[in-house]
Design goal:
With 87 residues, the chain is mainly alpha-helical. Helix content is 47%, strand content 0%. It has two helices and no strands. The two termini are 23 Å apart.
Length: 87
């Protein structure tokens, strides 16, 4: 499988010409661990709704915060690391 690589995606810290391509960006085990963690956060947000009542608004607040974190962290902080050079 070949991939097109431009000069902006080369690693400048080493002199060996190592190039980061989508094939070697993430390890499968790391991706699975991150998926399980963020799925647990998402399911925790749904579980917090089981404590919701008209007199207690905190379970809804917890649900909104956990739900937002479950999607915000992977999409912003854990996004593709080599996409800065692509336009």
């Amino acid at each position: 499988m070949s991939s097109q690589v431009n000069a902006s995606s080369q690693d400048t810290t080493s002199n060996q010409g190592y190039v980061r391509t989508p094939q070697n960006e993430n390890k499968l085990s790391g991706s699975i661990v991150l998926f399980v963690i963020h799925m647990a956060i998402f399911l925790g947000s749904i579980y917090s709704l089981s404590f919701l009542s008209l007199g207690n608004p905190w379970p809804m607040a917890v649900c909104l915060v956990l739900f937002a974190l479950a999607f915000w962290i992977p999409q912003t902080l854990l996004g593709r690391s080599d996409s800065a050079g692509e336009h």
